[in-house]
Write a structure and sequence with these properties.
Blueprint: H1 3-7, E1 55-62, H2 65-81, E2 85-92, H3 97-106, E3 113-116, H4 121-126, E4 149-152, E5 155-160, E6 164-171, H5 172-178, H6 193-203, E7 205-206, E8 222-224, H7 233-242, H8 260-274, H9 289-292, E9 301-305, H10 308-318, E10 323-326, E11 336-339, E12 342-345, H11 352-362, H12 369-373, H13 383-386, H14 388-395, H15 403-414, E13 419-421, H16 430-440, H17 442-446, H18 451-467
Parallel strand pairs: 1-2, 1-3, 11-13
Antiparallel strand pairs: 3-12, 4-5, 5-12, 6-9, 6-10, 6-11, 7-8
Helix pairs in contact: 7-8, 16-18
Keywords: Signal
Protein name: ABC transporter substrate-binding protein
InterPro entries: Bact_solute-bd_prot1 (IPR050490), SBP (IPR006059)
Length: about 475
């Protein structure tokens, strides 16, 4: 998956996209696609035999020819499951994917359906290039969580292919050694920001065993940090919203990052290193925060996306890491962001209903089970969060922390009022905005300037980036 490249410049998520971010592409979603026991063979609807010729549709994805072949094998299962639709998979290298789609769009030759970068969905919608998919789940026993719908002018123009949320990870052995209570996994018991900082001080140790605030503490010789907050631009918005601000207004049409509450939140994150001395320096350029902190054994707790369970923490656990998951602390309001890469139906298709039927089948949990059971993806359908039988089928496996802990800190958290969609679900030009924001905040993390000065001096440029006029 290619999310690593995108997250490195402040995009997502989810390995995504997952990418993520990064977060949620489908390019490898058949590598471990075994059906979970009792979960059903397929979500494709049964069809009566028909003498009519199958409707042929194309599905584009970014990936190598070999990856495309793997996805085609999954599509062949769908093709064989009914006699109405035949899907052909077209794999395009990541480096040329959007260039190729733009060329096809100009020539009126777009595929019927395919993957689209998170940050491109609203732009393509604004240009009339995507179909409304609000009807995709009509008549189904469950639909995706509301926070996973990409919306433009009130219409759902895509659903995320997978779910991801931001969490707090922590090293249980470090907490036990310091005799400090674990972070709460229950939302109602979430720490305030002050609780979080105070706990981080108890877990931050210099070479002489001193903690911040104690006489003789040496901030230049810290051997263990108490906390790390991921400061990639898209994740930073969590704290702006939590503090009563935001990067954008509710429909993504105006910039709010210049508000005092937004600026204050960013400065609080910077001050974990600059003032509180509980976090290592991070310049916010790479999406390897969990590897650099909790897994490296240098930091007691760190924020980042759920996808880390499958991408790195399972291996670390096998090597002896005793980690836990908790809900994020909050400043004024309890907030976590969710994300997930998009599968879309292009408006040039002559077969939108067939395209939606394929996507609904392809993105079903049964057909992505390897990614879900390993902890890389989370389900999109609401029933996996509300039906205990399905939740246990998902979570009760050795790849996850203990059931009650993970269910509370992840499953319940993801469907709570705290879960908000990342801004690319409803805002245009987030790539340009996040890239610029990441650049101007570089000197904030090192203390060369303040968040207030950095943002105020560049606010008009940020607004221009948001409007696409950078």
């Amino acid at each position: 998956m290619k999310a690593r490249k995108r997250l490195g410049v402040g995009l997502l998520a989810a390995m995504l996209a997952i990418g993520a971010t990064a977060c949620g592409s489908n390019e490898k979603n058949t590598e471990k696609s075994a059906t979970p026991s009792g979960a059903g063979e397929s979500s494709a609807p049964a069809s009566e035999p028909s003498s009519t010729k199958k409707v042929k549709i194309t599905y584009s994805m970014w990936g190598s020819a070999e990856e495309g072949k793997t996805v085609q094998e999954t599509a062949d299962k769908f093709n064989a499951s009914q006699d109405r639709i035949e899907v052909e998979v077209v794999a395009i290298p990541w480096e040329s994917y959007m260039t190729k789609l733009n060329t096809q769009a100009t020539g009126g030759q777009l595929p019927d359906t395919g993957m689209l970068k998170e940050d491109g969905v609203i732009q393509w919608s604004s240009e009339g290039m995507l179909n409304d998919v609000s009807a995709m789940y009509e008549g189904s026993d469950s639909k995706p969580l509301d926070s996973l719908a990409y919306k433009y002018q009130g219409n759902t123009v895509a659903y995320a292919a997978a779910n991801e949320i931001l969490l707090l990870y922590y090293n249980k052995d470090m907490f036990d050694k310091a005799n400090v209570p674990y972070p709460p996994s229950v939302l109602d018991q979430a720490w305030t920001w002050e609780d979080f900082v105070d706990t981080a001080k108890k877990l931050t140790i210099d070479k002489n065993g001193k903690h911040p605030g104690e006489d003789g503490f040496d901030s230049q010789s810290i051997v263990q940090y108490g906390a790390s907050v991921e400061n990639l631009p898209w994740q930073l918005e969590t704290w702006a919203i939590s503090n009563g601000g935001a990067f954008y207004n509710d429909d993504g049409t105006a910039v709010r990052i210049g508000e005092d509450a937004s600026v204050e939140a960013i400065q609080k994150v910077a001050d974990l290193y600059l003032k509180e001395h509980v976090a290592p320096l991070s310049v916010g350029q790479t999406d390897d925060g969990i590897q650099r902190t909790v897994i490296a054994g240098t930091v007691a707790m760190a924020t980042n996306g759920q996808w880390n369970v499958g991408t790195s923490l399972n291996t670390a656990k096998e090597q002896g890491l005793n980690y836990g998951v908790a809900v994020l602390p909050y400043m004024k309001e309890k907030v976590t962001l969710n994300t997930g890469g998009a599968n879309v139906v292009f408006s040039q298709t002559k077969h939108p209903e067939e395209a939606m039927e394929w996507l609904k089948w392809y993105t079903s949990e049964e057909n992505n089970w390897g990614l879900i059971s390993s902890g890389i993806w989370m389900p999109v359908l609401e029933k996996w969060y509300t039906d205990e039988t399905l939740t246990r089928k998902w979570v009760e496996n050795p790849n996850f922390p203990p059931y009650d802990e993970y269910k509370s800190a992840v499953v319940d958290y993801a469907q709570s009022s705290a879960a908000r969609p990342a801004s690319w679900f409803y805002t245009n030009h987030t790539t340009e905005f996040n890239t610029l924001l990441g650049s101007i905040l570089g000197d904030v993390w090192t203390g060369k300037t303040t968040a207030a000065d950095a943002i105020s001096n560049n606010l008009e440029a940020l607004k221009a980036a948001h409007s696409g006029n950078q």
